[in-house]
Amino acid sequence: MDTVITYLKQLDLSDIEAKIYLTLLKTGPISIRDLAQTVDIKRTTAYLYVDQLAEKGLIIKLIHGSKKLISANEPEHLKILIEEKLKNAQKVEQDFPTILDLLNTSLPDKEPSVESEIKNYKGRNAVKSIYEEALRSQEIRALANLDEVAHTFPENAQLFDNAVNNNPRMKILELVVDTPYTRKRKEQAKQRTKAHRFKFLPKNMQLSSTDILIYEGNVSFIDIKNQVSAVTLHNNNLYNNFNLLFEFIWQTLPDPK
Asked: CATH code for 116-252?
């Protein structure tokens, strides 16, 4: 039943609304007084929630002689809420470019870029934004344990593939831990494009960060082993030095067989 309540909450029902609706499905038509006693709430509170559920099309009010009863509509009526939620989600997505323009135009003129900046990220969504930012670059270099990345960000492989497909000028070089998964990723990339290349790190080389991304003046250190977090250093000198180190390692490693 917890699964059902969780699903109903995704359709914007509160805990008590979900409880009332499920109770009415079990009891059939009953009075508001009996409903309030069953779910252990005040009668005045029950009236409020019944009206809200009626507006959502999940409850109907009945009159049997002199009795006023309420009853739950069949569960198939939940589809109405699903369709409404999908419609609202589509509208939110459609309106996003307009809202983004309004927000950007309301911002003060941007100051000149700072020479150095450190950004800290915590949580899956925050760290995911680093990948999304990097994939808007023309070049990305990465040192990564892709097995661990894929465990936390299973959508990343598709994001990288889409980025290369949508931007023919993009270049991605990845130095990765040698595993069956990375071998598979290398073959997939080889079949699609020459712009996304892989080389395997030596077996005795262990990465302290799960992923290190080097892109457009940034070096991001992503940690997934303990908690999903990251630090991004924005500094052109540091970026250039990491590029040189990366290229040195890349040139010393053999092409994968």
From this structure: 3.30.870.10
